[in-house]
Amino acid sequence: MEILVASAVGILTAAGIYLILRKRTFPVILGTAFISYAVNVFLFASGRLAVNQPPVLQDDVTLYSDPLPQALVLTAIVIAFGMTAVVVMIGVGAYLSSQDDHIDDLDEVPPGQQDQTGDAS
Amino acid sequence: MSHWVIAPVLLPGMMAAIIILAARYHPMLQRTFSLATVGICLAIALGLLVSVADGTIHLYQLGNWAAPFGIVLVADRLSMLFVVLTLFLAIPVLLYAMGSGWDMRGRHFHALFQFQIMGILGAFLTGDAFNLFVFFEVLLLASYGLMIHSGGATRLRVGVQYVVFNLLGSTLFLFALGTIYAELGTLNIADIAARVAQVPAENSAGVRVAAVLLLLVFAIKAAILPLHFWLPATYSTAPAPVAALFAIMTKVGAYSIIRFYTIAFPPDLEVTQGLFDTWLLPGALLTLAIGMIGVLGAKRLDRLVAFAVIGSMGMLMTSVSVFTPEGIAAALYYAVHSTLATAALFLLVDVVRTRRAGHDLHWVQAPPIVGGALVAGMFFAAAIAMAGLPPLSGFVGKLLILDAALADPRMAWVWAVILTSSLIAVVGFSRAGSVIFWKAHAPMPDPALRETQSDEQPTPEQNPDHHSEPQPALPMVAIGTLLGAIVLVTVFAGPINLYLNATAAQLFAPGPYISTVLDTPGKVITYTGKDDHGDKGADKDADHKEEDH
Amino acid sequence: MSLFLIVALPFIGALLPGLMYQAGRQACAMATFFVTLTAFIGLMTHLPAVLAGEVVQARVEWLPSLGLNANFFIDGLGFFFAALILGIGLLIITYGRFYLSRKDNMGEFFTYLLLFQGAMVGIVLSDNILMLLVFWELTSLSSFLLIGYWKHLEEGRQGARMALTVTGMGGLALIGGMLLLGNIAGSFDLTVILENREVIQESPLYLPALILILLGCFTKSAQFPFHFWLPHAMAAPPPVSAYLHSATMVKAGIFLMARLWPVLSGTEAWFYLVTGAGLITMVIAAIIALFKNDLKGLLAFSTVSHLGLITMLLGTGTAYGALVAVFHILNHATFKAALFMSAGIIDHETGTRDITRLGGIRRLMPITFIIATIAALSMAGIPLFNGFISKEMMLKETTKTVLFGAPLLVPVLATIGALFSAAYSFRYIGHTFLGPVRDDYPAKPHDPGIGMWGPPALLCVLVVGIGVAPFLAEPLVFLVTEAVLGNAATLPDEHLKIWHGVNAALWMSVIAVFGGLTLLAAYNPVARGWAKAGPPAAKAIFDAIIHAVVSAATWVTATLHNGALTRYAAIFGVTVVALGVHAYFTGSATAPTREMLPMEPVAVVAWILLVTATTVLLVYHNYRYLALVLTSIVGLVIALGFAYLSAPDLALTQISVEVVTAILLLLALNFLPRETPLESGALRRLRDGAIAGAAGLGAAALIYSMLIRDALGTPISEYHLANSYKGGGGTNVVNVILVDFRGFDTFGEIIVLGIAAVIIYALTETLLSSPVRARLLNRPMGNKAGDAHPLMMVVMTRVMMPIVLMVGVYIFLRGHNEPGGGFISGLVVAIAIIVQYMASGFDWAEKRQRYPYHGIIGAGVLIAGLTGLGAFFFDTEFLASSFGYFRIPPFEEFELATALGFDLGVFLCVVGAVLLSLESFSRLGRRSGEQSSEYAMDIAPSRDDTAEKEA
Predict the structure, then answer these.
(1) Phi then psi for C623, rounded to 5 degrees?
(2) Which helix (H) or strand (E) holds B303?
């Protein structure tokens, strides 16, 4: 079992990093989604694995899976969701205002040519 | 137990909520709320600063749960120093944002600003590693919002990069925390410290990985090479007040490194040696070099300042990595100085940009800017401070750091890099200043520009390019405040340094910190419900009852 | 007067000219003059004490922990220099008042001048060498401002930057040197340091300290090879040149060498470095000076040469050498300042400083002629002028100096220097004043007012006075020399007299003078030869270097930070993996302590599903919709995994988040290209693959190494399990942790959600108020289904709505004891509402929901916060919960916990945040001309569409 989880974490991480190294916004966003999957599983597993031991107290049950990592992962999932939402929105905004969804902002070299919208107002 | 400790974290958060709920269509109300909140928080923070100055450590157990089981806020000399610094910085920044009208060039500036403050202060105050992560996210997300405030193609594209890179950082943070919990079974910083000290040498691998991963996470925030790449574009494209506020964000990284490596993963411990002490100094020196090279090599004024930020972080971390009380104290002094100086510079850059009549910030000749003398004077002062020339705080900081490095075996390296890089910075700044402020007075090459030049300089009101300034004095007042603060930091270097030495001493004797956090009893569990589930771990909480009573 | 005041006065006074700028030029000048005068008088009040050989001190602590204190002291040397600075300052101010034209901003000028003056006085009176450093750098800065004073002059700006660069470099070296010196001596106070000659000279750090300090001195005093900046500083207004670049600032380096003479001098290193540099500078600069056609250029190089002379004398390390050095400092200050002023006058009146355009103005400007001649003859070393005496003594000293074991080397070089010095002095007179009167002067030459010729004239009186009756200067010179020698050597019983008898020195100076005359006689051919074979201009070299450095810096900066996030991310990945691996393998891990769980088929199936989905995604990620679907599949598999590994809450959360995320991404894809063009080549993909693989391996290995071992300490969650019910009042430990044990995390978490929603809203607003709006309006319509809001779906969702809401409420309430809670139910309810949007379109749903999402978010955060604050009333900490059990017959007993209120806040925040985000997206989506239907469904049997269409 452990080997499955560990390998899953590895695969998700690899996939995430690979996608993040792509050149367009959308795959990069998917990539961030993947590494957050990976890290959620990782964090969850940090409480070690257990089957059929949900941390819901019942009479005459003494074995529970570690509840703390679950709580942490829950927080992490929510935060990741917020982050994804924002990065998606900014990505869309960037694409709409520059008609270009390249993640690399290569106009920076030479910075001379950069369009300096000091303020959009 | 007083609730003052949590006030600086709670007030901005609640105020932001109120702004969103009630005041989102009332600019003046937002401004008032925003400024008032920061002001009140600063007052409270100063009070706390005084109360911790004698070495007291305030502990605040959220939900009344004893550490490490619940989350605690810890106010000691170090955290209060940064809390006060943040809040002090926030005031001129807000003033500038209002004076220049930046805050109204998009929605929800003030709400986001308050959230940002909340995140930063929470990060400084929390005593729990995972809670630190949460506050990192709060301050990061708020910073994303502020960074893209008022939009614009470049800003949004840079924004995407900024967000993505920091998402990588956040993920790494979670990996580190997972490792910590899996290895040590705790998340409270003091408890981590206590347990790391117990870790047997033959089982050090996991803890070491956790330690180094954390170091990298914080290195991103502190913009240490090779993880600094997000900074130049972000800071130079962010709205000026935001960039100025970001001056403190890099310090969050520095703070976390200092906190964790003095208390939890000290390099003199067998388990955690050869990480911090191996990696940080080279990284810091590289950062310093690259930053100052950037000051010389930047092609625009705003990027020049951004690189100055990197350089200053390199300087700061160099001093940290000397890892002696003197070094830390010097680093803290430099942190205060560089925060004020960079903020002032970013605001000045914006003034130049606004007044430079569309000639932007490239090294091209443009007509003299409105009120050139004042702006130039302020820029000169800020640049002196930044480049570490006398008589301002930068010089004092540099002296302190050089002196602290004397004892270090790698002293030659440190000195060589610091001295050379500051020379480069001097050249860079003098070049910039002379092009932006002096060359303007030279006869214009092309006639089109020449007529715009006039001997008597037009006042701001007359200048058409001088837009969006309801009260033109306010921005200058804001910058003036920052410069004044720099002067004060210089003049009172003595007393300040006393406090900082005490802070460093407190950091290098973490005993009280740990005992305060871990030995304070929390909630007394008085169980009154009907007694089913009673058997669950009765023995376990029995002994907790004892320690509680 | 207190030393503090003497130092502070110029700085305080520096405010006046700026403030009195409105009051006019006269006011500025007067203010400056009187400030300086007051300081001068204040200084003079110390004269008796100094003559009595006392050392007056004034101390105040600044940064004691470092040893940086505002300590000042005054002895012969300090007094001498301070008097020089303030005295000549007075003359310069008068001169400058009349020199500057109406166009020049006099307030600015005098402000800078006073700043500089204060810094100089600070240097010479500092007791603390760190304090001295402060003033040292201040002189560099103020001279930067003064040289660049005429902002419109290209050479002014360049000269200023060059000066700052060179002296700045020296200053930095000096910082290092001083810190070392202070650490050797154990104090940064000169008075202490000067007592520790042996300690310092025996220390291993002596040499580095010496070199760094000398770097500072040489750059400041323009010694070879740093001599080149001074001539270019001549772009400054003549008053500045006269003040900074002849009389005072360039003497700062000399002063420091003299000041530290007792502790640094007398060693091999000192002798070779200082004497060597001085000698070379003296000769080279003298030669160059002769061939300068710019009057100020000539004087600049002559200054450099004379500074070299003084340096050489200090280098000898003998008491006599020091004596001569001091004497020559005095003499040089007098005649050189006078010369600079005369040059300024010539420039001012004739409109040119170019010697080739001058000549024959003797009759036109008789007064200037006399002044210049006296000063120049003194510089040439003609008897009866003070220059002669000190030069004689210098030559005498050289005859006793042996460099590199060659007894003749020093005297010969010195004579050559003196010879050229005489030559250019004669040229200054001859080619400028003598000769036929010309008719092509740029302006009509005539003598200026007394305001301008008075000051130099005054100096000439001194020149002659000392020249004729040197014994007048003797007490002063001896006093200063004693101060220089300290207790390292005793004053030689020499006397300053005109006639030293017929000795080697006399012959040498005779050679020098007549050689100079002959050289000048043969000037033109020699000059032509020089023009051909002369050495390259130092400026060209300097500029080349600076340019190279700048372009290198630009290249490095631009190349490193090229804006390629992909590369930044790659570097990040590599760094993390590398350091992680290093950390792991420098540590050690024990054998596994846990037994593995069995690998059950269902788990394996899920694993295979996950792997396949991921791999397919990696291959076909450029088809974005497909990629999105696959991502969701992966998410669901993970949810199942959580459920299987006994984390029901996580499973529920994961699923609901997955749904919302999917909807979000779908909406986003609505605006983005449908496909990702394949851009990266095979090599690039290989690189990325390698990095990704390494990262993946790292993560997997790390978690595996932990899964096979137990934690080193008991997890704190034991406590949570034990007290969740008794202390938190809930049996669902995860939920109790979320809302109670670690409620603060959750508080932060909902704030994150709130921020996210607010950002999305704000950005939407910004986009819609920018050009983007137009772009959106003219977006080509996607092929839109005729029946966008199908009947079936509408009906379904209507029926579902209340059920889903019920479920939401149920999940919410049971959360504390069973899997569920505010967050999950929030998402469920949000989804229920979203479905309405999807079914019946934005506007229809919009019309039917009353509460602004902003409000819901704000309320959520507030409620959560206030519940926490509620604890304050029970005088316990934020978020401290309490709970109780109630019984309302006939229902079974149920529980109410304050945590429920907190959870309600979470619930509201989630609903508000999710909906606000999606709403913002859909607002972006509204196109122009799109008829927003006010009906629930497009085609409804109940409605006669045909009639509608006709109407």
Answers:
(1) -90, 105
(2) helix B301-322
* Lowest mean per-residue pLDDT among C200-214, C250-264, C775-789: C775-789
* Residue B470 forms contact with A (CB below 8 Å): no
How many other C-beta atoms are found inside a 10 Å radius of the C-beta of residue C682?
8
Q: What is the pTM of this model?
A: 0.89
Closest CA to C364 of C443, C478, C278, C463: C443
Tell which residue, B319, B317, B337, has the closest CA to residue B394: B337
- Chain B closest CA to C194's CA: distance in Å? 21
Neighbours of B423 (CB within 10 A): 20
Cβ B153–A32 below 8 Å, yes or no?
no
Planar angle of CA C930, C931, C937, nearest 5 degrees: 120
* Cα C794–chain centre separation: 63
Helix/strand/coil (H/E/C) assignment for every residue in B353-415: HHHCCCCCCECCCCCCCCCHHHHHHHHHHHHHHHHCCCCCHHHHHHHHHHHHHCCCCCHHHHH
Q: String of b and e for B122-154 (b: at least 16 CB within 10 Å)?
A: bbbbbbbbbbbbbbbbbbbbbbbbbbbbbbbbb
B16, B390, B538 member nearest C134 (Cβ):
B390
Which residues in chain B touch residue A68, judged by CB atoms under 8 angstroms apart?
181, 187
CB-side exposure of B15: number of CA atoms within 13 Å?
A: 29
- Are C671 and A96 within 8 A, CB to CB? yes
- Mean pLDDT in residue range B516-535: 66
Helices (H), C68-205: 76-99, 106-125, 129-147, 154-185, 190-193, 197-202
- Is the predicted ipTM greater than 0.90, yes or no? no
**Residue type at C277 in one-letter notation:** A
Residues of A in contact with C599 (CB under 8 A): 1, 3-4
Q: A54 — alpha (psi -120 to 50), left (phi > 0) or beta?
A: beta
Q: What is the CATH number of domain A2-51+66-98?
A: 1.10.287
Distance CA C657, CA C820 (A): 14
DSSP characters for A38-77?
HHHHHHHHTT---SS--SB--TT------HHHHHHHHHHH
Return the residue of C nearest to B13 by Cα.
Answer: C751
Does A63 reach chain C within 8 Å, measured CB to CB?
A: no
C128 three-state secondary structure: strand
**Greatest CA separation found in chain B?**
93
Residues C261-315 have pLDDT tens digits of 888 888 888 888 888 889 889 888 888 888 888 888 888 888 889 999 899 888 8
Report, as an integer, the average pLDDT of B513-520: 87
Q: What is the residue extent of each domain of chain A? A: 2-51+66-98
Contact map slice: B 118-177 vs A, CB within 8 A:
130, 134, 137, 141, 144-145, 148, 150-161, 163-164, 167-168, 170-171, 174-175, 177
Q: What is the pLDDT of residues C17-60, one digit of tens each?
A: 777 767 777 788 888 888 888 889 988 888 888 888 788 888 88
Enter the DSSP assignment of C57. E
C190 phi/psi in degrees, rounded to 5: -55, -45
Whole-angstrom Cα Rg for chain A: 20
> Contact A96/C775, CB-based, under 8 Å?
yes
Which residues from chain C sit within 8 angstroms of residue A38, using beta carbons? Answer: 699
Q: Is C74 helix (H, G, I), strand (E, B) or coil?
A: strand
Higher pLDDT, B425 or C679: B425
Is it the case that residue C245 has pLDDT exceeding 90? no
Pick from C318, C332, C350: nearest CA to C250: C332
Q: Which helix (H) or strand (E) holds B151?
A: none
Q: Radius of gyration over alpha carbons of chain C, in Å?
A: 43
> How big is the B-C interface in CB pairs under 8 Å?
411
The H or E element spanning position B59 is strand B58-61
Whether residues A97 and B153 touch (CB distance < 8 A) is answered with yes
